[in-house]
Amino acid sequence: MSGLDARLVVRRGTFDLDLELTAEPGEVVALLGPNGAGKSTALRALAGLVPPSGGHMRLDGRDLGALPPERRGIGMVFQDYLLFPHLSALENVAFGPRSQGTRKREARARAAEWLDRVGLADRASARPRALSGGQAQRVALARALAVRPGLLLLDEPLSALDAHTRLEIRAALRRHLAGFEGAAVLVTHDPLDAMVLADRLVVVEHGRLVQQGAPAEVARRPRTDYVARLVGLNLYRGEAVTGAGAGAAAGHVAVAEGELELDVAERIGGAVFLAFAPSSVALYRSRPDGSPRNLWQATVESVERHGDRVRVRLDGPLPASADVTPGAVAELGLGEGSTVWAAVKATQIHVYPA
Question: Where does the chain have alpha helices with state H?
Answer without folding.
Answer: 39-47, 89-99, 104-117, 133-145, 163-178, 191-197, 215-220, 225-231, 326-332
